[in-house]
Amino acid sequence: MAESKNYVLTHGLSGKIGGMLVFRQMNGKTFVSTIPEKSDEVSEKQKAQRRRFRNATVYGKSALENPENRAIYEAVAAKKGRTPFIAAVADFLNAPEIELIDLSDYTGQQGDIIKVEAHDDTLVKEVHVSIINADGSTIEEGQAMPDASGYVWTYIAQQNNDNLDGNKIVVSVSDLPGNVTTEER
Question: What is the pTM of this model?
Answer without folding.
Answer: 0.75
